[in-house]
Design brief:
The protein is of the alpha/beta class. About 25% of the residues lie in helices and about 30% in strands. Bound molecules: zinc ion (ZN).
Amino acid sequence: MKTNTLWVSLILMAGGAMAQGASAKTCALEISSSDGMRYDKTELKVDASCTEVRLTLIHAGKLAASIMGHNWVLAKTADVAAVASDGIKAGAAGEYIAAADKRTIAHTRLIGGGQTTSVTFSTKGLTKGGDYSFFCSFPGHSSLMKGRFFFG
Ligand code: ZN
């Protein structure tokens, strides 16, 4: 009986250790935007130990989403121009995000002044040291509202 109890304890301990090793590490990022068609950051960094990223976008302005809407879209830098132009085709109803676009790694909702939104995404698809950028896909915004995203 004593031996059986010991084995059960060992199995439980091993299970606990495995669960801990596979546990998610969510890293929080925050970026603010304004009626001046700008983000407050041009660079965002995520450590490679993060399994998930929770990005919060703040719109500190006053203008409505239909006039000065902002979102946060992440893609490979090489894909940004195409993702942005397909986003414009998706229109306001699609919040300027092409549906089921595999080049879009993550994106928030489109928000207006005074609103905040966030998105949580896995870093599984990201390559350490890869060339990534974020931008706002509202028509005409990506030339000013953009930045580099570093993972590594
Ligand atoms: Zn914008």
